[in-house]
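Tutorial handout. Part one gives the primary structure; part two gives the three-dimensional structure as tokens.
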Amino acid sequence: MTAPAVPQRLAAPAPGWTDTVDVVVIGSGIAGLTAALRLRELGSVLVVTKDVVASGSTQWAQGGIAAALDPEDSPEEHLQDTLVAGAGLSDPAAVRALVTEGPDAVRDLIELGAVFDKLADGDLSLTREGGHHRNRIAHAGGDATGAEIERALVAAVKRADDIRIIEHALVLDLLQDASGAVAGVTLHVMGEGQLDGVGAIRSRAVVLASGGLGQLYAATTNPSVSTGDGMALALRAGAKVRDLEFIQFHPTVLWLGKGAKGQQPLVSEAVRGEGGFLVDHEGNRFMQGQHELADLAPRDIVAKAIMRQMLATGKDHMLLDARHFGDEKWRVRFPTILASCRSHGIDPVRELIPVAPACHYSSGGVWTDLDGQTSVPGLYACGEVACTGVHGANRLASNSLLEGLVFARRIAAALAENLPDLREPAADGRVPGLVDADVVPQLQRVMTVGAGVIRSATGLADAGDRLGALIEQPAGEPGTPGWEATNLVTVASALVAAATAREESRGSHWREDHPDRDDAQWSGNLDLTLPGEGTTARPATAFVALKEASEGK
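Part two.
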């Protein structure tokens, strides 16, 4: 029997309407909205978002945004901390762009209207998080930084009459010309109105800022819209995806019990930055001796230490102690976390907080150069969907908001220099495919067990086989649930392929059958592409993998 192939394009009705703009921006978080605000000077801009404009992952960011804003800090020190966290796979040029352009980008964000917490003397209140050797995390509302940044950006976009927004819309696939270059997008607008159902929008460029893939896993800090749509769309268009095996599992997610599924409450790393510490059920501080920064070690080290302690003690969670903060500090510095804990029956002022790792962030994604250009002409990417080279094998805490901000600005600058002409879409002869929407819970279980925090060749092979079996289930009618399920299977398959190929442990990729970091064989990036039509390999092997040396990129 022929094994199922990852769909080469989504099965969908033919477009019932068309439109034309200069640039389509997919996503409405910090990356997408920053890009839109910068690109409006070049022509017509359309922002497409799956939910309402303020519903993306940015609003959930608690800790803050990292930048060398303190006179005693420097971009060079920020660069070094980022490179260390990236475990040898970060691109130094990309990191240098981030840390040198970051401070001015944050200041511009403040001028736009974002209000950050300040000290009594009026200076920004800066804190530390894991992997940072300086206080360089600017925060807002105590632990509601993402929500404040999103508020300011949404307000600015809504003041801009020349930026159009389509909410409740899922972008399906790229329109491409005969050479494969971008000619626009197809999308489905949910609900009724002037633009409802499937349509086509022609454009000169497309900016992917669609966020991450957290819904691949049973427990995640990501919202329900994070179904890997942008990465799947890029793969189907022939784009190169890099280092997708590096999924960051946040070490301190509020543990809600064995049966908890979906989006879980985050307990920000900033709690440990302010002096909170991890203990096991006997009260032992097990991070001591694990790393020079102990409880403030990079996230991969803390997550692995928690998992080891859980395995050693037979417990399904560890504990975070911040009782010494007292009531006032909890109310002022961490009001969101305090309310979240109390809503689940935990009072962190008087009780230990149960925590366990959960899927948080994809350090890899659609490969881009320093200007956000992907391997597909006219397709740009920024934010979590992109692999700019900043994060390497493990993201340094609070670099994500800064990365979205800086590289969105770089994309706008690049397009100001060379905005492509409008291209003519070519006929798409690929056979469409669709996965059954009902497979998502099974897929999440498969990924959690086989490609979660701890991985092995056996577990990954089983995950690949199970993903193949999910594709074999008959698909229903085209619609958002089926399209999202297809995107999830596509990205899950790519992730399993990458995790299978990288036979070492590095950063957030932990192979128990290859427990050591192997610089001799694996000090390079792993790129994946989806082959053209005709492949009959199962999903987890239906990718062309290419390892590139990190040196001289």
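Part three, for discussion. The two ends are 42 Å apart (CA to CA). Confidence is low (pLDDT under 50) at residues 534-541.
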